[in-house]
Batch of 4 targets.
Target 1
Amino acid sequence: MFESLARWLLLDLAGLTAGSPTAEAAIFFIQDTSKIFVMLVVVIYLMGLVRALISPERVRQLVRGRSKESARGLAIGLGAVTPFCSCSSVPLFIGFVEAGIPLGVTFSFLIASPMINEVAVVLLAGIIGWKLALLYVAAGVVVAWVGGLVIERFHPERWVEDYVWKIRMGDAGLPETGTSLTERHRFAVGEVKQIVGRIWKWVLAGVGVGALFHGFVPAAWIAALSQGGGFWSVPAAVLMGIPLYSNAVGVIPVAEAMLGKGVALGTTLALMMSIAALSLPELIILRKVIRWPALALFVAILAIAITLVGWLFNAIA
């Protein structure tokens, strides 16, 4: 439907030449922009109906007082379904510390929250199918679980800034809402406005990059990127993603264009996971609450884990 709309607008009405780089890039842009914004509104609204009962304070209360492994599983699950990107997850780090939740569990949440984004998963499923999309979710869960465990082994409490331990954080996130359908509807509409209003520029930027990639990047360059099974392309994609800033939704169009050009699935997902979980703004904010050794450990463990996941997807796809 979206592709037909784009082709009608650009080929029939605008008169662009079918198959030309400009036409293919423009069709990709119109098609993905309309598709992503429709899915954003629908998915965010539906999740907002559920999220009306979830606030950062409630997240903390649910995790507090449980056994370490139970708390880790719950933290990862909540990270996957709560509306916190990598940067907005950082204030919760302080709240988790104040609540007495182990730092290994806190880091598991910090990894899972931006990486396993339900909107991105729905969009990704439309590109690579539900089986591979669910495998991506499983990979994100494993990375969050193992990453938190490994960081825990280094006793990261010694690297938390002193002032963090003294903070008494109140409810710093979603407001408490009622449970009636009308109140949930209002909250869900507010979620759509807030989240779409926050990320629409990144979506357009991501679609724009994807469109240029789709229409103008030479096939020979893509073949070189994927040559030899993509062994070196995976760590290169991880390193490339670290300084970039976007969320999982904004990078989906780039991933789609890369896959359409023949880039290996694992290489593409490695770039996507690196951008989502290792964004530079997140690291800058995170440095305010943990010292350099903990930050370097966090980056190193995630980079290694994402690289291994990329190699795995390249081997099985």
Target 2
Amino acid sequence: MASLRDLQRSFAAALRDPGVACPVLPPANLSIYRNNAGIGFRAALERTFPVVRQRVGDEYFRQLAAHYRELFPSRSGDLFWVGRDFAAFLDEYLRGDYSWLADLARLEWSRAECSVAADAPAIGADALAGIPPGDLEHLVFGLQPALRLHSSSYPVFTVWETNQAENAPPVDQSLGAELGIVHLRDGLPEVRRLDPHLFSFLSALHQGQTLGRAMTTAGLEEESLTHALAFLFNSSLVSSLTVNGGTAEGLLPAQ
């Protein structure tokens, strides 16, 4: 007699492959489960990647979902995670003129990840007033855990912004590379394009560089630094500040 584990495995395999027999259910009943599993998988992808779906059309998206499911079947009881490998799948499946769709999928997956990531208490700009001037260049910024940075060779931010409206026209791919972030604002994921200097500065801080080193990396002048810091604090992206590896007095996140 087959063990419960073996029966579960045969049932799961039969849900994905009509050629696999399952001793638990007759074919007619199994087809209902198989159909529901496929629909649920595709629906989860559609919710996570609405702009990819909009750009390729419903029918082609269904084909993509079916091929993707064959290679990357769900391995979690939570359908939220079925899209984790979708961008990597598109990298291999779509090449040439459609390679930008994989980067667009990465942007949309970041929105999904951001929506379930932790949101730490933010620190305000007034915290900088407590730092001795000589220590400012040695500050290390702890940024929000939900923050995601994106660098693409394609105008995927413009594509995403344009396709927030129905029947949006195609975006001219000759617009070229774009940079930006996804972060939480008022509990919802927000997509924002950034200019190269600000993106470079934010990336350097995200990698753990000190304020002084990040300024050098991004090539920021003093006036530009003021605008960059205003962006960070006004966007609630800073969750901690440390000086020389120790938390600076008075700069702990608000409780």
Target 3
Amino acid sequence: MIRALIVDDEQLARAELQALLEATGEFELLASCANGFDAIKAINEHQPDVLFLDVEMPVINGFQLLSMVDAERMPQVVFVTAYDEFALKAFEEKTLDYLLKPVEAERLALTLTKLKHTLQRGQVPSYTTPELQRIPCCQGRRVKLVDIEQVESVFTDISGVHLRTAEAQLCTDLTLKVLEQRTPLLRCHKQYLINLAFVDEIQLLEGGTASILTRSGHTVPVSRRYLRQLKERLSF
């Protein structure tokens, strides 16, 4: 069975596609998500084989969502869209395939054939994704999108990944690796990223480590492994 995830902000579209997938007898539907934020959680949790992804969604669209997925967890992607111009861009982004709404069973069968061949070959998906401009964060029942320029530092602990701004500390479902690779944030420790624009002071410590004091007064550790690149970036 092919492990699948549906992401579409339209409930009817999700239900119709789910019925078509189930009718093939080839898919195990892991989850059906109404927005990109829930999709990130589901991808991290379930690690599906294929993502049936709506292109045009509010807040986080399909292309932006792909920028938020760790490359090691990236599933095969089939864009589902009502707009031909987006379908053409899907090919430019080198996704596996695309389906035009309303999805037809015959066209889905062609996608299934292509998907089976791709999975059998063990082909690893690799998509061109833009740098992240905003990071989705949990805030109660709301999702707050934080501009990269507002982020002082990011750290991970047993409870998850946390963003610090001058005003708040927020949680995100994006991994530290994604944030390091797709934002200007610099790795300074295995558990920390730092925004160099917010560095106020650096204290060099014994053993080749250091400590950063941010403009808002937070302390961020610098391990020996990453101190050299920090010095190079700040020219000291």
Target 4
Amino acid sequence: MTNLAALDLNLLVALESLLQEVSVGRAAHRVALSQPAMSHALKRLRSLFGDPLLVRVGPQMQLTVRGEALRDPLKEVLSRVRNLLAGESFDPPHSTRTFRLFVSDYASDLLLPSLRKRLQQEAPSVSIRVHLAAENRLDPFELARAVDAACVPNCFKGFYQQRLFTDRDACAVRRGHPIKMCLGAREEFLRAQHVAVVGREFTEDPVDTWLRQESHQRNVALSVPYYLQALHVVSQSDLIAVIPERLIRAYAGVLHLDLLPVPLDVGTFDEYLLHPAPSHADPGCIWLRGVLQSLAKVLGPLDPLRIGKTPRHSRSERASRERVSKSDRPACP
């Protein structure tokens, strides 16, 4: 039995050249070896295979029966080795891969419809398996093993991170709502009946946590777990909701909503694209991150005239006090 541990892969490269050129001189030139070095390689190959491989017949060299039989199998083996060393490629139009994406409720409502449209155009057989975030239960090490990428408002140790986009809270009201003309008054805003968004990871809407810290309290008439539910309720009632501005704009046309500024300095918050180290150099994951970044870029910048003069605690910073343990606090640049 051949000892593979003692096999020099360069010998197989030399053999490939010898079998193709059927000449020691031409084979040496093909792989940039001297003729004596190729002759020495042929001597070792003859010993390895127990066959002359190349023999002289008159003025020319010819392959033995064993040499002829080795041509195609050797070509296939070396092709596989070269592909292995070159790394896996990713061909979006023909890939049938399933990617695992971990997203916040907000990011899923904002980005997934556009992501699906892009996939239909560029990678129709690629699928996305979405896991919604419940960040107070997150173990970063478990997350790194479970997903290819994440779109969340917090960063985690051990992840590569890039800022996707910036957003801020705004007020969503149904089109034609009577409060539309007088929302500039803080008291009117606080007295209005609100829909709060209390996800499974919260004890209350982070907006209410922040308002209480600012010595304010709004009138919450209904609490729902998801932003999109809140927008549907607002579209069919006189209730109002404080929702990320980009999300209101994305659904304003479909749900017949108007967007109004919150009469308090709510500041801004960021959404991040994270990915674990195992997926950093993977061609498919690199492609997916590029698609997500391009979708975020299409969102464009926020209107600078609407940003508060002094951005205070962002939504993610306000919420992190309740949903992220001390060891998992954001480590973003």
